[in-house]
Specification:
With 427 residues, the chain is an alpha/beta fold. The protein has 14 helices and 13 strands. The protein has 2 domains: 11-53 and 314-426, Aspartate Aminotransferase, domain 1 (Alpha-Beta Complex); 80-312, Type I PLP-dependent aspartate aminotransferase-like (Major domain) (Aspartate Aminotransferase, domain 2), CATH 3.40.640. Helix content is 37%, strand content 12%. A 7-stranded mixed β-sheet has the order 2-8-7-6-5-3-4, sandwiched between helices. The protein has a 4-stranded antiparallel β-sheet with strand order 9-10-13-12. The chain has a two-stranded parallel ribbon with strand order 1-11. The longest helix is centred in the C-terminal third of the chain and has 23 residues, at 315-337. Its EC number is 3.7.1.3.
């Protein structure tokens, strides 16, 4: 299916890998993928924002023109169940969870807040929240805010910026004071994977609950939440699930925990008898109690398309191609870029890597801008990381090869030196 490491790194080998790719047919289901010209745009930022599926405009138009335009308020009979219905699609087709354990709602930050507070309440007498010092800022900010509001202590666990979290380091931070652990399955900077099952076992042995952030993994790497015994999780739908900018997030609550937890935002969609309009809040049964207010119906129409495509392709097949694509990035970086001071800043073991690779160089910001001007879309992460996310559903091996060839030219000819530094950009 793909070039073997350290063997044939020719463009012809990349083309041969594309010819053998069982997911090749999915590429045509995304917009902007029909240009095969030598100057075509090479999009390697699917881990920040996924491409637009071809089916999405029609799905959103149906929601606007038929369901809203013609059905008007009568369409609520269908809309009101969207959060659970799409949640069940995510559970079965993407997350390895059971029906009734996933809900599409709100944003990742709000969902994290809801689950973190509910989990902390479920561990009375414990006053410590644990998170990773190198985790995505929103996660750390939410943890810090909840701790301040509740008079708790935050215990930040150090992680290697490239290799990710060492489970042994985490284990040393767990004791009888820890109520909740918040961690990402995939490190946003380096793509380093954390073993969900192993960390869940460690936390459970200490009596703590874990809230997983699956944002950089959902739709790209398996989560297998039920098999891992996971307690709680949140994640976004606009990256590898291709739900569109600002798409609603999802939350997962293990079935056995649902009726033990009470989330802090008491909205009418989480009320047991929603349309009774009663004077007091009584949480609904099951995962519905984690809903809050009116769902973003139009945005959810787009999310459903992305989730269905991902489920159809199969997360295991997507992950296998992701390992191969990122492996090609690593091999080409070693072969072409190392002599110019660019090095791989992600785990080299494909089993420990998500669907993106970070390269490090002191002028990574300038390299990023030079690449964008040459038709390659990566992104930059502090302090000196050039991040490449070849989304497996629509990125070909030859796209990776051509993007790396353009990067090789930029690095070798020194053209990046004409770009201002990031500090100049900020000031």
């Amino acid at each position: 299916m793909h070039p073997s490491p350290s063997t044939d790194l020719s463009r012809a080998a990349a083309l041969a890998a594309d010819a053998a790719d069982p997911l090749a047919g999915f590429r045509a289901r995304f917009t902007g993928t029909d240009d095969d010209g030598p100057d075509r745009l090479l999009y390697l930022d699917g881990n920040s924002l996924g491409r637009l599926p071809v089916e999405t405009p029609a799905a959103v138009a149906r929601a606007v023109e038929q369901e809203w335009g013609q059905g008007l308020v009568g369409s609520w009979a269908d809309w009101i169940g969207h959060a659970r219905r799409i949640g069940d699609l995510l559970a079965a087709g993407v997350l390895g969870a059971r029906p009734g354990e996933v809900l599409v709602s709100d944003s990742t930050s709000i969902d994290l807040y809801k689950l973190l507070v509910a989990a902390a309440d479920a561990r009375p007498g414990r006053d410590v929240l644990v998170c990773c010092a190198d985790d995505f800022p929103t996660d750390r900010y939410v943890v810090a805010g909840v701790a301040e509001q509740r008079g708790m202590t935050v215990r930040e666990v150090e992680a290697h910026v490239d290799e990710g979290l060492d489970p042994g380091v985490l284990a040393a931070a767990l004791d009888e004071r820890v109520a909740v652990v918040v961690l990402s399955q995939v490190a946003y900077r380096s793509g380093a994977l954390v073993d969900v099952a192993e960390v869940t076992r460690l936390a459970r042995a200490a009596g703590a609950l874990v809230v997983w952030d699956l944002s950089h993994g959902a739709g790209a790497v398996p989560a297998e939440l039920t098999a891992a015994g996971a307690d709680l999780a949140v994640g976004c739908t606009y990256k590898h699930l291709n739900g569109g900018p600002g798409a609603p997030a999802f939350l997962y609550v293990r079935r056995e925990l649902q009726d033990q937890l009470r989330q802090p935002i008491w909205g009418w969609f989480g009320q047991r008898d929603q349309f009774a309009m009663g004077p007091a809040y009584e949480p609904a049964e099951g995962v519905d109690r984690f809903a809050v207010g009116t769902p973003p119906v139009l945005a959810m129409a787009a999310v459903e398309v992305g989730v269905r495509i991902t489920a159809e392709a199969g997360v295991e097949r997507i992950a296998a191609k992701g390992r191969a694509l990122t492996g090609l990035v690593v091999e080409l970086a070693d072969a072409w870029l190392a002599e110019h001071g660019v090095s791989v800043a992600s785990p080299r073991d494909p089993a420990r890597r998500g669907a993106h690779v970070s390269l490090t160089h002191p002028a990574a910001w300038q390299l990023t801008q030079a690449l964008i001007d040459r038709g390659v879309v990566p992104d930059f992460r502090t302090p000196d990381r050039l991040r490449l996310g070849p989304a497996p559903l629509y990125t070909r091996f030859v796209d990776v090869w051509d993007a790396m060839a353009r990067l090789r030219t930029v690095v070798a000819d020194g053209s990046w030196t004409t770009y201002p530094t990031e500090r100049a950009r900020v000031t």
